[in-house]
Amino acid sequence: MVADEHPKSAEHRRRVFFALWPDDATRSAISRASRRVVRLSGGRPTAKRNLHVTVAFLGMLDVAQLARASRVPPIPVGPFELELDRLGHFQGARVLWLGPAVVPEVLTVLERRLWEGLEREGFEREPRVYRPHLTLARRARPVEEAVAPVRWTIESLTLVESVPLPRNVHYEPLEQWPL
Question: Concatenated DSSP letters for the chain?
Fold first, then answer.
């Protein structure tokens, strides 16, 4: 979130976040591994092209704020592997998710360093604890079933815009930095 937000017209503001953005092969593996549990959840599946793991949500930004956010990366932690092997459910939000049972230390370092840089640029961190996950379905019921683990080599950090559409949302990568 941005500490110094000023009301401006929506047309000059963009909803953005930093994310781990899977390649096509990883997206397909996630989709295959989760197809059954998504169906069992009765929820609305996340479009395959929108699958990602958020690292830092920034909210609605104007052009100057977006430029400040873009100055923070790169964050040289090096490529790392993430194993998506834990199915979960956020009860209040009714979100079925897939995440790591064990969060790699390098991901924790990446998230911390990113927020340290963002805070220097005037952004305010959300108070909740970071829980890396990939949203599989919304308006979903919990599912008590295992999924086949998906191993994903993370090599970059991506700045993404959330573009609202009439019936859903499209996530558009804006910039990408190697780790």
Answer: -BTT-----GGG-EEEEEEE---HHHHHHHHHHHHHHHHHHT-EEPPGGG--EEEEEEEEE-HHHHHHHHTS-------EEEEE-EEEEETTTTEEEEE-SS--HHHHHHHHHHHHHHHHTTB---SSPP---EEEEES----------EEEEE-EEEEEEEEE-SSSEEEEEEEEEE-
